[in-house]
Each structure stands twice: as C-alpha cells, then as structure tokens.
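Researcher: Please translate sequence to structure tokens.
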Amino acid sequence: MIRSFVFQTACVTDVGLARELNEDNVLALPDIGLWAVADGMGGHGGGDVASSAVVAALRTLTPAASASQLLAEFEQRIVRTNADLRAMARTRAGAILGTTLVALLVHGSNFACVWCGDSRVYLRRHGILSQVSRDHSEVQELIDHGLLRKEEAMTWARRNVVTRALGATDEAELEIVDGPAYVGDRFLLCSDGLTVHVADEEIAALLGAADPQRAVDDMLRLTLERGASDNVSIVVVDCDEPEAAQRGPEA
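Model: Translation complete:
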C-alpha cells in the first residue's frame, strides 16, 4: 500500500564551543523525502569542502517515481562526489578531503537509512528509541569484539577515529538499512558532536517532546551546556498524517 506523509522537520548545525570552523553541513528536502548530515574532516579547505560537496550534490535530486529510483539516484551522486573528492585530494598532495554522511530517504511507505562513518540515525517509534545505524569507527569495532564497554566509549581517547568516510577511499563504502515507515515515526539524524556529550537515554527523553523543534533545541542546549567539544548537527523528522500536520502539535 502506498502511504504518503506530511513531514515536520527541525534542524540545526552549530560550531560548538571548541572549534573555530563548522565543518558540518545539513540538508532537509521534505518534498523529495531526503534529509542528511555530513560531518567533514580535514580542517579548513578539507572537511568543510567535503561536507559541502556532498550536500550540494544531493541538493540536485528531484522527486522520484519510486523508492528504488530515489535510492539509486542518491547513490549515483554519492559515488560521483566520492570520486571528485579523491581527485581533488590528489591535486593537493594527498590532503584530507573527507566527510561522514548519514541520510534518511522516505518514499511512499518505505524508508532507507544510508550512512558512512559515525554520524547516526535513530528511530523513535511507539515511544521506544532504537539506533538504526551502526558506527563505522574504531570504538564500535572494540565494542563488537568485547574489548570495550559501551559506557567507556564516550570517554575513549580515539572515539572520533572512523573506519569509513567519503573521500577516504576510491570506492564509497555505504551501508543501508531499510524498512516500512509508519505515521508517528520520528527520526533523528546527528553528527557525533551530539552523541559524544548526550547519552542514548537522554536522547530518548528529549525526543519525547511534542514539537520536533523543541526536541532539537533541547538537545543542542544540553550539548552546549556540556562543553560542545565538536561541531554539532541535529535533524529531527516526523512522519505525520496530513490532517494531523494541519492541526499542529497538541498542547
């Protein structure tokens, strides 16, 4: 059955309190059914260029006839941008031009989460929060092998070392999870600037706000209160019925 949603979106990207440059970029295209967060690496002229290039490429997407077409055109742009970043790096004597990426695509009754690196996507459904993505990072590999507890990951010295990134290798190493989307689903996309300071249990509580903008504002405020040691980007997407969206959030 084809299901259409009206999307309510709230997003923010902030330089944080310790960096001079914001290398994050966010994208919200509800008319296309696409949202993304890109967290650049490599400093000025590197990470900011890479994350901007990815977002600029995705911004050229147009409405698709099917979920498979939307995903295929998304992947085409990512593959092309990855090749462009690799070519640019070669002209700069191997300078780092890399970025993580997490994206949400929704078409009809289907969603797909696509990512590379440690930016994350969460899903809140029926009041329960689950992490859809799995970090491509050294920390996650240590956790998977039983060498590190999840509680230790937030303070691990190499917690920001990723094992995949766009622009890092000649092939774009994307991972995809897909499934059905339902009215009432709330998705969160974020860079690790949020998750290094705010635990999943706290994210779950803050995502319970009736208004997605309130959820975004509260998560950013808590991150800043805790030092915001990195750039932080947050995107919240609600899948609403058209009638519910027109009524607005309940008091």
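Researcher: Any highlights?
Model: The chain is about 30% helix and 30% strand.
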